[in-house]
């Protein structure tokens, strides 16, 4: 594969940051739409249920702003937005775990299936983290390898992607188990992303100079899986009572249509991480 | 639809998954001697029809009731849906006369499974040997380990949605579908059980929690016991009946069996039935009676001949004897917060604690389940159990959304006093109507008292107010044609084959020697599946 040629406008670091912004934007979009539908379903019972909508909207704006920004330096306001986004994701995860645990039965399948999904807020956390990573990468001195806490930023981004893919796959696995894997396609998000996660873990820890063409191919397929998932979920809604004629109920109660592109966002972030590694293979 | 309108005729039967839809159906002539003529299409007959047809036998299964398409025929109306019950004339006597209707009968293709509560539980293994192991009732000629396999088949056929692990009894495979989300009434059962220190779980239910074929996932409409209009409920009507027709069986709706004919060699030759305004005779090599614990003995008794003056298959004198009706008492109360117990299937959680705990001073066991009676049923409970009327009833009904309750399904011991016999009166077909005599025994009363006490404790533990008990209610039937080990101790053998007439079979809840403390439908289906396999094996050996 041809190495990317930084344009006159971009340094490699800015290009890498923009790629991370793309992944973060896709994650934020997924969370924005998914949390809007799911929290609407929950009638915004708790005002905090508005938080992911506000922060994912902000993260999306920040990511798009970053994507259009050619400056090779971090942007303080964007960074603050991403930090807030990540914190919201962390708090949301805590909230969802607490909500599941306080019901009769505590930590049980019933509560994991039907409470606010424990893994979902992590998607906005990941969006924030990729945004923050992008700012740090952008801020690296020209000609140096971007570092995070002294570690190669490409490796750090690979590791975050790997963990994110595993977590998101776990979430899909839990909910598809709830659906008894009634359609064999429901197995795809519990098989393809974990394989991608293994490749990203290998990238995080392995040989920085290795040509990872297969990993890139696999990530692109994972990105497409996220888009295909939207189609599968649209079909899933049609199988509920009344199908799409009864969309006001079924689109809300059926399989979440905006959720699968989380995989696309993570795959895009993974591609950004691999590009960073390729541009800065030294440790 | 008009109740007099035949639908399964002219080479087609209703497609239950489509409004106005049809599926092709093979039909047999009256002179064609079919391998099996099955009377009744519920948990026993419907399941058996499907499995026997799939085994390659020619099958005609008839039901006295209509052939409904749930999507277009079922209303969200408790009164309208009374059309699903067997409400023909009966005489109910005894100290505790049974109320016949929705809880213990069905008159529709698919039988009472069309309106059953979908609770699909396995027997405790010891119940198959309750005389030898637990000291009461009678042993079954069946081995629980074999039944465990047939329970599994029945659970798969209906895609039961149940808990990931079941807390009682020997290990069982995972239910095909996951349990449903628990409603507020179900959570309050859980809270009460946790306060009492006993286990609870999600009830294994025959309504799908995810799409299955043409069945959409449950939308928690809550009319389960009045006919599911979405087909999420997996009943005989939308599982086994379509399978039977696909495998070449004929279903005859609105066909009332009046008499089984027997020849001089003591073999049945066919059945007289009333359909479309006239009596007909269908020839058959084998007849299976699957009319449940009232209609099955009634048909056998109504088919008496000079050679069989006590009725068919009745040399033991046990046809109609040992009628059982499970105890179905309840404890209700009111919460400060809204519960809205009508949402979703009524029995989303249960505890089988007292089915598996033997430290008690009576025989038998019981479970209890969360409740969600719809308004008319609730009004009946208020007028019946509490005697409320007028303004007091109106005020009480205003609290409907705050009510919560627990209802038991309790084991009743087989008691020779409880029986189905024939009265002299006749019904609209000119057939003698059944006289159903039922009284609770001392053990039954002790069990009910224990259950009411325990359920009351659970209700107190969740802070319910105005707690009251519904002390008189019964539901599922069993007995009246029990299976056993010898022609003297029973009507049929383990294969549901009558001892007296080798080509006469009985396959429904009436073959139960004991009734256990769980809803019977899954056990009836498991028995039907086993019977079909046994018939196939016997046919291969030329033993039919």
Q: What number of domains of chain A?
A: 1
Termini separation of chain A? 22 Å
What is the annotated CATH architecture of chain B?
3-Layer(bba) Sandwich
What is the assigned CATH homologous superfamily of chain B? Answer: FAD/NAD(P)-binding domain
CATH class of chain B: Alpha Beta
Looking at the structure, the CATH topology of chain B is FAD/NAD(P)-binding domain
What number is the mean pLDDT of chain B? 97
Sheet with the most strands of chain B?
7 strands, mixed
Q: Could you give a short account of the major beta sheet of chain A?
A: 2 strands, antiparallel
Q: Please state the average pLDDT score of chain A.
A: 93
Overall geometry of chain B comes to globular
From the alpha carbons, calculate the radius of gyration of chain A and give it in angstroms. Answer: 19 Å
Keywords:
heterodimer; A: 283 residues; mainly alpha; two-stranded antiparallel sheet; B: 544 residues; alpha/beta; FAD/NAD(P)-binding domain; seven-stranded mixed sheet; six-stranded antiparallel sheet; 23% helix; globular
Task: Summarize the topology.
The complex is a heterodimer of chains A (283) and B (544).
Chain A: H1 12-41, H2 51-67, H3 76-101, H4 109-114, H5 121-138, E1 147-148, E2 151-152, H6 153-178, H7 192-205, H8 213-238, H9 247-253, H10 261-279
Antiparallel strand pairs in A: 1-2
Helix pairs in contact in A: 1-2, 1-5, 1-10, 2-3, 2-5, 3-5, 5-6, 5-10, 6-7, 6-10, 7-8, 7-10, 8-10
Chain B: E1 12-14, E2 22-24, E3 34-39, H1 45-54, E4 59-62, H2 70-73, E5 91-93, H3 130-134, H4 144-157, E6 161-162, E7 177-178, H5 184-196, E8 201-202, H6 240-246, E9 250-252, E10 256-262, E11 268-275, E12 278-289, H7 292-302, E13 324-327, E14 330-334, E15 349-351, H8 353-356, E16 366-370, H9 375-385, H10 390-397, E17 403-410, E18 419-426, E19 432-437, H11 442-461, E20 465-470, E21 474-478, E22 504-506, H12 521-540
Parallel strand pairs in B: 3-4, 3-12, 4-9, 5-19, 6-7, 12-22
Antiparallel strand pairs in B: 1-2, 8-15, 10-11, 11-12, 13-21, 14-17, 14-20, 15-16, 16-17, 18-19
Helix pairs in contact in B: 1-6, 1-12, 4-12, 5-11
